[in-house]
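Give me the fold.
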Amino acid sequence: MGNPVCFIINKPSVGGAEIFLLNLGKYMSQEFDCHIIFLFPGGEMLDKFKESGCKVHCLNFTWNPFGFLKQFRLLRAKIQEIEPEVVHTWLYISDLIGGTAASFEKVSRIFWSIRQSNISISQNKLHTFLFIRLCGLLSSHIPHKIISCSNVAMMNHVKFAFYNKLKIKVIPNGYNTKELMFSDSARVALRSEINCTPRIKLVGIIGRYDVQKGFDNFIDVSSYISAVYENCLFVFIGSGCDKSNHELVGQIETKLSSEKYLLLGQRSDMKNVMCGLDLLLVTSRGEAFPNVLAEAMCYGLPVVTTNVGEIPIILDGICKIYNPGQNREMADASIQILNFTNEEKAVFSEKLRKRINQRYEFVDVMKRFRNLYLDTSS
């Protein structure tokens, strides 16, 4: 087994960063002695991380000053016990807390991560914005390298958060299209579960309930589609997309009648979801490298999306993209796709899959991380 590599992340929630780290950990644990430290309790993916081949360590950070200091000492002790040559932190809180602890323990190489592109105060929670700014101020001192999943995210962090550009390296996400393939049985599984007849078109949004994901835009686009395309059901999938979210339900019911939408909440069967949908809408105001878009492309699921983050590079002109808020235009594009013949849909789907194979092949991306961890000059 190779030298210890230690990943530090907030908690094992379901999200793009966490899912990519899970896949990275599975791959790296074949060669390295991989450890993952979760700072905060909770999270739906803990069991999956425990099955990844990585050694999992769970802390119990709180924002209570005394509790925080106790957990910070435990974090330092855990890093000292592991003796990693590499500590790679994910998300701003973990970059700051984990990076500082690793620095105190004289870890030879510390890597931070950049996983989003929209860092304005209006599109982030206040504490997130403050962590972004703090990380920017410390980016010249704590990390040896900062790994950004997109060029746009890198430039935004340099320009608006004063990250040290000389330390940033761009490595995109990677996908295994041999595993992420369309399946008739997966499509039937989802549609049977929700009693959806073949004539109904399912249009979905996938993501945690967050202002950056543009749920208000999705609802607006859906209302335009519903006005001219009767046989549509609009599906909300992700953390916070359930009936207990009264804010979301209130927004939806101002534009859609109750029989026109479905709240499925957080799901673990993403293959069924991707195969069961007829169209994915990405209405985000800010993304770095949206996993959900790339995964949809792997499955050949047609997409209509906003022009944010790395999306123009990911799609590379396969289809038109729209500025956030161009909701009527996105609705028109959606209706056009929903009216595709089987042949037109097959051609579109193949273009999407081919693009991922060409640029974001899983093993190629994993090898770039492997080389990064092995390169003692980094």
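The domain at 184-359 is CATH 3.40.50.2000 (Rossmann fold).
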